[in-house]
Specification:
By secondary structure, this protein is of the alpha/beta class. The chain has 15 helices and 13 strands. The structure holds beta-D-fucopyranose.
Length: about 475
Amino acid sequence: MAFPAGFLWGAATASFQIEGATTADGRGVSIWDTFSATPGKTLNGDTGDPATDHYYRYADDIALMKRLGLGAYRFSIAWPRIQPDGKGKINQAGIDFYDRLVDTLLENGIEPWPTLYHWDLPQPLEDDGGWPARDTASRFADYAAVVYAALGDRITNWATLNEPWCSAFLGYALGAHAPGRQEPASSVAAVHHLLLGHGLAARVMREHAAQSGYELNLGLVHNQTVVRPHTDAHADVEAARRIDGLRNRLFTGPLLHGAYPEDVVADLAGITDFSFVRDGDLHEINQVGKLDMLGINFYNPSWVAGSAEGIPASALEDGENSHGGPTPWVGAEDVVFVHHGFPQTAMGWEIDATGLSDVLLRLAEEAPGLPLYVTENGAAFDDEVDQNDGAVHDTERVSYLNTHLRAAHSVIESGVPLHGYFAWSLMDNFEWAWGYSKRFGIVHVDYETQQRTVKDSGWWYSEVIRSGGIPDTSDIPGRP
Ligand code: FCB
C-alpha cells in the first residue's frame, strides 16, 4: 500500500499544549492561562505550566522529529508571545523563539507548518470582548502581519485558524474551553469574526507575499466530521442535517461558497439574526481568504437522533448531550448524540475510520481540486511505560493510525487530492479541559522528568514514513 511520491508526513502540536514557560521572556497572558488557573475549569487544576517544556527543549524535540523521519511539523504560534497585549507593542523575544524553532526545523530538513491561532487569545483582547467582538478580527490580521513579516521568508505553508468551531462553540457557548462563556448568541458572532479574521489576515499576508516575492500557500484548519442519522426516521435525518450545519457547513459555507447556509441561518433564528455580518465580509472570507489548501482534523464520526426516546441511556454520549444544560449545539438543544457500538478511545470517542474517508470524499466533491491535508488525526489511550523493557506498547494507537491511514490511502486511490497527513500529536501534552490526563502522543512524556519515550506507534509511524507505505501492525519496525 504505497502513498504517492511527495506525500507529506508530519506530526502536529499547539503552542499552549506543549510550550510551558508561560511567563518567560515577556509573554503575555492568554485566555487559557486565565481559564486553567480558575478552580474547577480543568481536570486536577492542570495549567499550561510546565506542559512539555518545549520552549526550552525545542532543539531536542526537533532532533527526535528527525529521528522519526518527519517531513513536516505543524505547530502553532502563541499570539501572547508576539503581542503580549494582543495589539500594539511587539515582543521581540517572542519572535526570536519562533525564529530559532523555524531555523532549527529547516536545518534538519523538516518543513515548518505554522498555525497562527490555536486558541490562545491574548487575555486583554478577551477583556475587550473576545471573538464575539468584531475588532478582534482586525487585531488578528495585525498580528498575522507581524508574524508573516518575521517568518514569511522561510515558510510557505500557513494556516490561519485551528478549528474555529471549538473556539466559538466550546469557548463561548458550552464554556468548557477558554474563555468559558455560555452565551449562545455570542458564540455565533464569534464564528463570523473568526472567519472574518481569516479573511483579513489573508489580505495582509498575500499583500506582503506579493511585494516580497515570497511563496505563500494559505489555508485554514477545520474539524469537519461526518454526522450520521441514528436511524432513517425523519427526526433523526433532520437532526443530522442540523448538526452537520453547525459543525461543518457554517464554516465551509462562507469559506468555500461565500454564503452562510440558509437552512442553518433559519435554524439559528431564535438565537441570532446574523446582523453582525456586514457588506463585504463574505467577499473577504471567500475571495480574499480563498483557500490554497484546507486542513482537516479528524477524530471520530457522530451519530445523532432527534430525541432520546427509545435509546438506552448507556448509548447516549455523555459529553455531547446537554441534558438541559449548556451545549455547544446552539439552537439544536434537543438533538442527542448516540454511541454506535464501535470501540472507544480514552476520550470516549468511537473509532470508525470510514468517518475520515467520508469527510475527505465529501470535501473533494464540494471543492473540486482543492488540496486537502489531514492536519490532525490520532487517539488518546491510557499509555504506560512498560517496567520490563522501558517501551510504550500502545497497540490500540497503532491500530487506530493503521485503519485511518488505510482510509486516507483509499480516498487517494479514488482521486481525492489529499497531499499530506499529520499525526496528533507528536507528544503527550496539555489536553485542554482534560489537563495532562489524556495522552495523544506518538511520543510519551513523563511529566515528572520531562523524559520523552517514543511509543510503539511512533516507531510504527516512522516506518510508514520511511517506506512510504503501510507496514504490518504485528511487529513494530524501528523500535530499538
Ligand atoms: C483537537 C485540537 C487539538 C487536540 C485534539 C485532541 O480538537 O485541535 O489541540 O486537543 O483535538
